[in-house]
Amino acid sequence: MKTTFYGKKISGIVTLLPETEYTFEDDMKYNNLSEKQNRKLQKTMGYDRHRFFKPDTYLSKVAIYGLKLMFEKKLLIKDDISAIVVSTSTPDYLMPATSNLIMSELDLDNSVFCMDTNQQCAGFVNGLLQAFMLLNNDNMKKVVLITGDVMVRNPDRSNTSGYPLSGDAICITIVENCDKKLPIYYHSIVDAKSYDALVFPGLGFREITPEDKIRFSSEKYSFNNNLNSIHMDGQAVFQYVMQDVPKYINETLELAQTNKDDLDYYFFHQPNKFMVDKLAQKIEVSENKVPSNVVTFYGNSSSSTIPVCICHNVKDTILKNNYRSMLAGFGAGLSYSGIVMNLGEFDFCEMIVTNF
């Protein structure tokens, strides 16, 4: 899918982080790897620390806290909200939508449009797509895009496959119309035949057969026999990011009629430092333009890694400056979604550590 929007902007981002933080140094005590193996893993993948919400924390609880704080700080006026879009893989309930729960708690007007979407790694970019489409309608003021998960409950610190890269963060992004009619280019690809490279087999309504149990606990998924957790074929995901994603990035640049060197920043989804750095090399872009430090400080927060990346790296300068940027999410699906747009002159860009 390729499309173009005009006259839209991101006016601010608030990143909400858990207070519980684990360092890789401390995590090393819980696994069976030697110190040399741990240090190699740390250096290659960029692990240093990550944060997790408490077991009794749920998405709407954090989002409501964040929005009320924004009301108090005059970052957002309640009556300016025309829509709430929630991008998450961990909704409060299967029914109703988590966006409805947030709307109810904030006592918003019943004309506010609410929707949830489950897009994982591309959740932020596809959430922006939904926001842009909503803003094309008459009388729309601001769309609140909420991204993030509460995926890790009581983490298994001995798991050297998925645990070191995991992390929680919930982001609130405000999207609205603007007078500047600058184009925003959106491009997405879904390679659905490879869906099982990243899969969460448990907790759905599809019956897990004995054959499925054998398949999902195979070497392909690091012998992971817990169906209520993410199963990743690491080699398949890495090959996808190295072989297919660079092609899709170039197609997005072609759509935008933009030379890759003309962009100021590439804010990519952050599976780990190694993969993002390798992707920068593949597309032949300076690593200075491709921040890869999110997992180092916060872990991989799925649909929130891009706004976390923006907040961590340019939260001070983006208030005054304007950056021609690419935002790209890739992974689960397997899918890719990319946007080329101007980012800047934000009203706010904050990172807040919560007590959740």
TrEMBL record:
Molecular function (Gene Ontology), one example: 3-oxoacyl-[acyl-carrier-protein] synthase activity
Keywords attached to this entry: Acyltransferase, Transferase
InterPro entries, per database record: ACP_syn_III_C, ACP_syn_III_N, Thiolase-like
Limits of the Beta-ketoacyl-[acyl-carrier-protein] synthase III C-terminal domain: 253-342
Pfam family, one: ACP_syn_III_C
Gene3D superfamilies membership: 3.40.47.10
Protein's recorded name: 3-oxoacyl-[acp] synthase III
Organism: Arcobacter defluvii
Higher taxonomy: Bacteria, Pseudomonadati, Campylobacterota, Epsilonproteobacteria, Campylobacterales
